[in-house]
Design brief:
single chain; alpha+beta
Length: about 210
């Protein structure tokens, strides 16, 4: 009877293990890389308040990033928003990436396309509006806010909201709008601290 060579068996085992390892590495290499969320660049943001009873009555407030992708953030071009008393407005936006003046990107359209990943949150001086009441939903997401749009899952977005001013005048208030980017996070109850902040702008607010 021929004796078995233990060293030959060890060599065969080593070859087998190496082959399995190579196949495993090959499968890992073939796997598709994880999709990364593209980071939007915001160079120009304009808030547009349009009187629902008179489309020619428009109030705008803007901010601009003076150095594009540099270290500076969006800077206010308008210190305050001044709205008329006893008036209903629809708030919409123009949001742009104008780093390349010859190829200006409409980031608002991208937000609409990815509405399930974005939500606008607001904070304002207590009682500044007849509707919504309160002081906004940045502090508590469930607080009143008049969203006019929903994402594919039925959750609020905020590309369009409605605001009704009171019949009394006021000055020296504040109005903050914050856009949160919430990929794989956004639900009916997520708040202003969930996800990443794309931008947060605080303007003065006058009702007169």
């Amino acid at each position: 009877m021929k004796a078995m060579n233990p060293f030959k068996n060890l060599r065969l085992l080593a070859i087998l293990v190496s082959t399995i390892a190579l196949v495993g590495c090959s499968n890992d290499d073939d796997a598709a890389p994880e999709e990364e969320n593209e980071v939007e660049v915001f160079t120009d943001v304009t808030l547009i308040f349009t009187n629902t009873a008179d489309a020619n009555d428009v109030v705008q407030a803007s901010a601009k990033d003076p150095d594009g992708t540099g270290i500076q953030e969006l800077q206010l071009l308008d210190a305050a928003i001044t709205l008329a008393t006893d008036t209903e407005y629809t708030l919409t936006y123009e949001i742009l990436n104008a780093l390349n003046p010859e190829d200006v990107e409409n980031i608002g359209a991208e937000i609409l396309e990815e509405d399930h990943e974005h939500q606008f949150f607001f904070s304002f001086t207590e009682g500044a509006f007849a509707s919504p009441t309160g002081n906004g939903n940045i502090d508590t997401a469930a607080d009143p806010l008049n969203y006019n749009d929903q994402d594919e899952n039925g959750n609020p977005v905020g590309l369009a909201t409605t605001w009704t001013t009171p019949s009394v005048t006021s000055a020296g208030g504040s109005f903050t709008v914050r856009l949160q980017h919430q990929p794989d996070v956004k639900t009916a109850t997520t708040g202003s601290n969930d996800g990443d902040t794309d931008f947060s702008l605080t303007f003065g607010l006058n009702i007169q």
